[in-house]
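--- STAGE predict ---
source: upstream dedup step, 1 unique chain passed
mode: sequence only
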Amino acid sequence: MTVRPYPLFLYATKRLLAMMDPSDPARDKITSEHTTTSFGYRGEVRADRYLKRSLMPAGSIILHDLHLTIPGHETVQIDTLILAKSVAYVLEVKNIYGVLELEENPARLKRTGSDGKIHYFGSPLIQLNLAIDTLSYWLFMHDISLPVKGAVILASKNLDVRFPTDVPVHLVTEIPSLLNKELTGNAAVTEQALRWTADVMKKQEERFFPYPLAPYFNVAAKSLSEDPLCNQCTGRILCDDTNRLGTCLSCGTRQWIPFIKKLVDYFLIRGSTLNIEQAQVYLGVSATKAKKLLRSPLFIKRGKSVAIYYQLNYSAVIFNEEGELIIPDSSVEIFMKR
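--- STAGE serialize ---
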């Protein structure tokens, strides 16, 4: 089973917030979206742990955070899709706590917190049915005769569910028994057809792409701090006169300046392209050092001669499970320490 990737949006918004002025009017919106993404991701990771405990039929394929698009329609995001030879099974994961009730006309989810406050969310059943309908049509378009089913999974530990008993909603702890029941049946397709289906789905994905974030959220790049961010706490680093070492103003950690991460921040937050001269000014280093840093696999070189510029290689941006950026070529950072 593949590991669910840490959301790039979660990493990028955290770093954007660390650079922003506390009084910036866009801060509340960004914080809200960051928090929502974080809650959702944590719920999906908890569901994945129970998914690992499930006995999957031979040849089954699990896809995480899949984005399916039908021409002429909006893209539908599927938290978890299990492709088995007998069925395609959708898991719509919700990490919402409190007293949960389904309402009709309009269809929505009502949450009552421990403080008595009421919040409303889109109906998870509507979202599940949209995912099932979209997936069914996608399979039909590609001549794959595979039935589609699904369920809403409630991942929070602190909840009181007051749903009708006949709706496809289950606690996260029920995943193994649910899949043991739902994934059994006669094969409708071959393992080869499943592999082909998964490959085409991933190749056709149209993912949410709001980068760079500053213009997306209408934040002026000039208003953002240009201080590098701490490797330990994402606080701002006060650089020494040498511009090689610095001290975090939040946690006090002494550290080498993380130039590679600062360059990644530029592309995720400030701008989509960068040339050597701009990198020099942004990092406060020589042209030679800027060129060496931009040789990292995280960046793509484009253009020729005096028109050379660089872009972020998004396919190389990978995080560990704690959301820390994995630097593919540590020798580049080592160069800056000498």
